[in-house]
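Final report, results section. Input specification for complex C-07:
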Amino acid sequence: MPSVFVPNGNAAASEESIDLPLFDISQESPELGKAIVDAAAKWGFLWIAPSPSTSDIETANERTYDLDEATVNNVFDISRRFFKDAPIQEKTACAIKHNRGYVGMHVETLDPTKHKRGDFKQCFNLSGPDLSSGEWLQPLPTTFQHEDAALRDFHDRCRRVASRILRLIAMGLAIPDVDWIARTHDNAPNTSRFLHYPTLPPDTDYDPEADIGAGAHSDYGSITLLFTRPGQPGLEILKPDGDWAGVPVFPPKYHSSTFPPVVVNIGDLLSYWTNGLLRSTVHRVVLAPPAGKEHSANGSATNRSATNGHNHSNGDTGSGAADRYSIAIFVQPHEDAKLVPMPSPLVADRAEAFRKEVIGHGGGVTDADGMKTLTSGDYLSARLKATYGAVFEREKR
Ligand SMILES: O=C(O)CCC(=O)C(=O)O
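Structure output:
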């Protein structure tokens, strides 16, 4: 099976930054769906505006925005308090099990082929509550217990946004039943992953040629929503030409300098389901080494300031000195969803050429023929087993 070649998977940060297509999805239309599918086919990544721009405010009442700045800021604040203030016992009491819970520094290695040491990050995977009973599916740390309502509300809002994106993609793919994709997600809670990349101390042994914040990987499910913070860059995507490019926190001339757009990317399952029409793009998070420890992509010393080489126009004043926080919402079809071909005329004639293509990058990937026999849950388990090693065990049902 040919594997997906990822150049410089452990190379230092890219000097280039990318301007992704930006969409306002507060209304649904086939034209918007088509534009989103085109962006997803070209880049696999796009931005959506989670709230109206100033000029849209008059019409905002007729539009549906599920996310607002105060809601997102509050959830980031909960995340910061958990990672910075909670005692280690509160975290380890909820250590990861069945892909839910706390993941300590270096526990996950997203690109085991390139990095001997695990990723320089800690995270907490919070599954949405069971959609029938409303019960949380895991023990919650005390910090989260106190914020039960806010966390449920955030899950609900993200679920609505994700369903809308899935409907728009179905429209763009000319699937006659526009709920076909969204329906495969019924009763499947999304997973919110809170991430914290701590500032590297001056005496760190972090080696930018060997270590990474989050190793090169593709996402496993259908789509991911990624929330980031002003002044905290680091995300890079692998472009179709094989070079890395940084995704700035704000697009050029964006209407807000405090509330970034949401990054949306396509995961392996949606790429597979569309016979590779939609790209599951490899991405990574590169950390800025402390001053005096910067290296260029070829390993030589550089005097580039600690900004990951990203363009920080429009308020994106990143600094290597800041901790980085992000929140990824992994949207996954139901565990038992069979990976049967999607009823879209745009993807049907791609099937034969696509059979031996490998989807995604990272541990546990397989080719399109190999995926035919899998369910959504089988695929997710294979990927998690490869990146968490012995820490991952599939839940018995
Ligand atoms: O932190 C980020 O910006 C990206 C995280 C990510 O790609 C992941 O956890 O899969």
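The pocket of 2-oxoglutaric acid is lined by residues 193, 195, 214, 219, 226, 235, 283, 285, 326, 328 (CB under 6 Å). The chain has one domain: 22-391. This concludes the modelling results for the funded period.
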